[in-house]
Amino acid sequence: MSRVARLLLRLFPESFRNRYGNEVMTTLAASASEARDRGWMAAVRFHVLVMVDLGAAAFRCRSRQLVAAFERRIGVGPPRLPAPAKRTAMDTFLGDVRYALRQLIRRPGFAAIAIFSLGLAIGANSLIYGLLDGLVLRPFPYPDPDRLVAVGVSFPKVSADTNYIETLSPAEYLDIRTVRSFSHVASYDLGNRNIVGGDAPERVFTALVLDDLFPVVGLPPALGRGFTREELAPGGAPVAVISHRLWQSRFGGDPGMLNRPVRISGRAVSIVGVMPPGLLVIGTDLWLPWGGDPLQMARNIRQFNVLARLAPGASLSQANAELATLARQVEQAHKGRFAEYDNWRLTATPWAAALLRDVRPAGFILLGAVGLVLLIACANLTNLFLARSSTRQRELAVRLALGAGRWRVTRVLLIESLLLSLGGAALGLAIAWVGLRSADALIPSQFQSLGLAAALNVRVLAWSLLLAVTAGVLVGVVPAVQAIRTDPHESLRADVRSGGSRAGRRIRQMFVVAELALSVVLLIGAGLLLRTFFNVQRVDRGFDARDLLTMRLTLPRDKYPGESANVFFGQLADRIAALPGVRTVAMTSQFAPRESAQTQFRLERGPSADRDTLPAAVVTVASPTYFETLAVPMRAGRAIGFADRLDTPLVAVVNETFVARHVKEADPIGQRLALGSPTRERPWRTIVGVVADYKNDGLTEPVRPAIYTPVTQQTDWNQLFVLVRSDVAASSLIPLVRRTVTALDPDQPVYFVQTMEQALSAATFQQRASALLLAIFASVALVLAAVGTYGVMSYAVSMRTQEMGVRLAVGARPRDVMTLVLGQVLRLVAIGLAIGIGLVMAAGRAVEGVLFGVRAADPATIGIVASVLAAVALLAAWVPAARAARVDPIQALRVE
Amino acid sequence: MPRTKALSAPVLHIMLALADGARHGYAIKQEVESRTDGAIRLGPGTLYEAIQRLEESGLIEESVPAGDAANGQEAQRRYYRLTTRGWTALRQELRSLGRLVDLARENPRLRKGLA
């Protein structure tokens, strides 16, 4: 025995062992001999009790030590009895904190459940807020990011889309510079430059700036300076500013390299500035003055991007109104020469939104979803608190009876809930930290190349803290109000057995119903999004996305005028086609599954119509191998051919939807159509073939009528996508293809290099991420609701022990009692379901925008959710129900 | 409202046992058990954990044993007695318990058992 006791003694803190160890052993020996005298049964009992006693005391001793250490750490010092004579408000407050802490530590299970559920909920919130912060709200490190705008343009003649990248000409930029709502405006062209210096020459993604970009983004260089007016003017001194990343990787972060000449694409350039860390402007690393004369450039050579900062006091809508007026003036002045100005629009959009417009709605839906999870966790905790406060009624009543103010009692309860929620916030931040680190896998590569990343930062921290305090107050306020409304005499007198009042029970049931209803909303939401995601995956795209590489090239018009762009693209296609593993190469102005550029057209034998009623179709300029590369079959006639040249008759290919909608029964082959509005005489094109339909307006929209014209029968297009179909993994070709482009023209940048599968996965990123995250959150909500149901039911059962006893005594079978309890749970589930479904219906319209192939009122989803919820709730209530059924009637009745 | 946390049952009983005079640990245990007719049994762990707590908060202190016991095994043992502070705290606690009982007496259903 004494050996076991000595072992158990080791559980105590050393200080205790040193001081009391021998005493404990002596006392033990004396008691043991006493116990032995009473027989072996007593001796065995004694030994068991001693072991339990030593273990429990050691635990108490250790936890007291921990609390004392913690209290010393937070500066309240160990409790001293009796209390100091004079107490300041701060002392009282700290005293209350200490009291609350002790209350919580005395019920570690309660505190653990509370912190765990709040931690889960706050963690989910912090995670989503962190993602939103990193990807949507403050994706770039600019000050006042909402006031930094990109100017986008849409030419309704060409496409319904508004484009922000490489869409404006220098002349148009000069027009935009007159807008008074902008305090700073700058424009840049994107390109690649060779930088020499350091180990080896390197191709660097470069922005060629027209006017100083840095005041616009609002960041001064971290080292050195930006560009001067003279340097920016045509023929200015050759200078450059580089990114922090490039400075580190190429120049080892050496501040001495400033103002020393470096060779950039053959010119000696001195580097005058280094930008602060973080990528600026679409992931470029090098900024050079563009150096051309905007006035010498044609109006329709559009390869520039325009960034502007709103002037102090100017609003985005003011800027847009000014831009609209400007667009009309330009239209009046230049429509004669440039038909695309007809109804053109200029739009200023916050920079982040312009680049990342697809992620926003899903982000905010998810933020709403995690908000619901937090509400559920709060409802849960309020319930736990209520259940506990009814058992604490007497303690509180004693405190009130002994003269504590009502505010004081309330405050202690509030402090308790705040301490719990702060604990939850700490756990939540840990969860969010882990989550954000693994979230990188969810972020599509095209975003990562912009330098986007989600991380735990001050704003996420502040957000979590705000949520924690809000949750703490929310959770604490109902029990606190209930506590101070209680009459101390009443509750001291009250019969223990009756437990909470009828009203109290109602409130608790209400909270469970609310939890169940909110879980229903989340579960149905997750179910609908999952179905949407699977539906999108299952869509018949009509083309083959495997082993297909896509990229975009924009040839500078000054370097490749007229037909020379086609010559370049032709050579490039030949060279890429010769690479090992490549099957076909195609050039196109746009590609599946999103071909957005639309143009009006007129069929020779179609109904005559004026400008406003002419139909429009998707018009894609494509090379002869486009359909073959996408693996789309021809239905009639022939594809675009290599023989279709500038000097042969103009031809076009249409898709099946085009035939069905516009040609009807007649044979489409040989019919003629003209593209563009009929205000001018347009050349007729002969339809030579019909191609099978494939998705051309996104995966979730019906196929639109489409017309394809040969790239070799035009000279307007200097910006084309290159598609490469291969027998090997598409991504393995990327370096080879890049090298091929560089070999043809070392200055030619390639953008948006991605495999078709990456492009598709980026297109379904929103559905994938939101379905996945919402499913996770719905599961968390379900677990919380189950815990809540369990808590309320076991409390209700313990309060009704007597009743159950009576029932059993008068002949009810245990099964009947279980049915009774479980029936009650089912009633709560039914009410929760009804409310939850009602909420989904009410929000249906708002939700349906993100759904595909499934309606908000989807019977299958609702059915599954109802059965899952019922099953989980019944499971949660099973233990209390079984306990109720096992009540011993005699015991239950004797309690009174 | 009491300015301090209520004393736990073992602590209160230990203090009551010491109110008769200084005792060592095993004697405290025996005294408490006999006072409560064995209803409260203090295991050695609980006993010394409570003693440590009381010592740390200055409610009891070690005392020199009475002269006649100062030999043999008894001399090895530590004796404890209430401090002035301990007396104050004990009185205060008993007063507030008394008030509590008074309050409870106002309940007619409880009065019978408490009379």
Description:
The complex is a heterodimer of chains A (896) and B (115). Chain A is an alpha+beta fold and 896 residues long. Chain A folds into 4 domains: 2-81, no CATH class; 91-139 and 359-494, no CATH class; 145-355, no CATH class; 556-747, no CATH class. Chain A is 53% helix and 15% strand. Chain A has 27 helices and 21 strands. A 6-stranded mixed beta barrel of chain A has the order 2-3-8-5-7-6. Chain A has a 6-stranded mixed beta barrel with strand order 13-14-19-16-18-17. In chain A, strand 2 (182-196) and strand 3 (202-210) form a beta hairpin. In chain A, helix 12 (360-401) packs antiparallel against helix 17. Chain A starts with a helix and ends with a helix. The model of chain A is unreliable at 77-85 and 495-499 (pLDDT under 50). The two termini of chain B are 25 Å apart. Chain B has helices at 9-18, 25-35, 44-56, 84-105, 108-114; strands at residues 23-24, 60-63, 79-82. Chain B has a domain at 9-83: Arc Repressor Mutant, subunit A (Orthogonal Bundle). Chain B has 115 residues and is mainly alpha-helical. The model of chain B has no long low-confidence stretch (mean pLDDT 79). Chain B is globular. Chain B has a 3-stranded antiparallel β-sheet. In chain B, helix 1 (9-18) crosses helix 2 (25-35). Classes of the chains: A alpha+beta (896), B mainly alpha (115).
